[in-house]
Amino acid sequence: METYQDVICPVCGCLCDDIEVNVENNKVVKSKHACAMGTSKFLNYPNDRLPSPMIRTNGTQQPASLEDAVTKVATMLVNAKYPIIYGLSLSSCEAVKAGLELAEEIGGVLDNQTTVCHGPGVQGLHDVGESTCSLGEVKHRADLIICWGCNLNEAHPRHFERYSYTAKGRFRNGKEDRELIVVDVRNTSTAKLADKFIQIEPGKDYEFVNALRTALRLEQIQRDSVAGISVEEIEELAETLRTCEFGALFYGQGVTQTDGKSRNIDALFSLARDLNSWTKFVIMPARGHFNVAGVNQVCTWQTGFPYGVDFSQGYPWYNPGETTVVDIMRRGENDATLVVGSDPVAHFPPAVSRHLLSVPLAAIDPAHSLTTMAADVVIPSSFAGIESEGIAYRMDGVALPLKKVVEPPPNVLSDEEVLRMILSKVRAIRRSG
Fold this sequence. Notes:
Blueprint: E1 2-7, E2 19-24, E3 27-32, H1 36-44, E4 54-57, E5 60-63, H2 66-79, E6 83-87, H3 93-106, E7 109-111, H4 119-128, H5 135-141, E8 144-148, H6 152-155, H7 159-163, E9 179-184, H8 189-193, E10 196-199, H9 205-216, E11 225-226, E12 229-230, H10 231-243, E13 246-251, H11 253-256, H12 262-275, E14 280-285, H13 292-303, E15 309-310, H14 325-330, E16 336-340, H15 344-347, H16 350-358, E17 361-365, H17 370-374, E18 377-380, E19 390-393, E20 399-402, H18 415-432
Parallel strand pairs: 6-7, 6-16, 8-9, 8-13, 9-10, 13-14, 16-17, 17-18
Antiparallel strand pairs: 1-2, 2-3, 4-5, 4-18, 7-15, 11-12, 19-20
């Protein structure tokens, strides 16, 4: 048995880097320190994985060689006038870079899961700017933790113990030195742990944030209540925020995907900016997939834009609502799709999924999904952070190295290697044509 220390957990945006993994006969047999989600992935990742490349022939998927599958995908992309590459949030940053090169070569669009989760947060960042820090600073210094529209206790089970509410840092001794406030529309498990739970009316985040900013400026709110919360409670909350020593606000899809979307984030970022006139305050998204933030980072380095990057004009450009994948598919504009490590057939709106299935579809993925079952070409890949190395970005923007602890099955390559094979084949087809 071989033991690997300080393995990074490739599940959520926390990227916990203290995992201990025991490997025997090229199989993970035990993991230590990981949460239930991390443990399940380390122990069960081989289950239900794709056995070989597949090409749909006469309506059914048939086993094929890797070379034939790569050629089929490359031909599909070369023949398309407006193809889309989607996913990559479960891939390494190196794979994202390869995906961007491929998207530029074929004159298509590269988009990722940000477009349907924290995209409005990225747009709010464009509009206002972000007062932020590392999770390490939150652990050591924050005495006030706010969870707004996110359920950290379930979505990021070790967030509290490692980085925030119950974490013991240099200047804070766990929850006895901190206060947890939850703002949400429902009484989540995180809300049940809170020192104060503020249950606002659905779709009223924007109004509530601006009422809070009004109270923070010591101005009068011209109503008895806002979003179902009395003015007295709002003023009390404003005083709590103003008088903390170091506040950290984490927001999730409960605020990015409700009425207002990016305007909600504009207001939250403005609230954090206002609070810095009184005390130290930071704001941070509670990102889901383990490298969804990494896709935004790499896209921004390479193109200047964080997601929904369109290369169809011969240069990168970006306009959410126009160059983002759901909007393109809803309008029926793209004529081929390559999905990497995602399952849009299962998760996109039905009308969008119907269009996705009406055009040539290829998938690169380690395991079965509705998308791989429906795809015209399927190429198995390795699990990043278990079977292949690379870089991933934590939700606070800190880059961390993923480790390889086991060998992938024979002839199974990483997402990066598969994408570079496709890119090479695309270039070869174009040269020959």
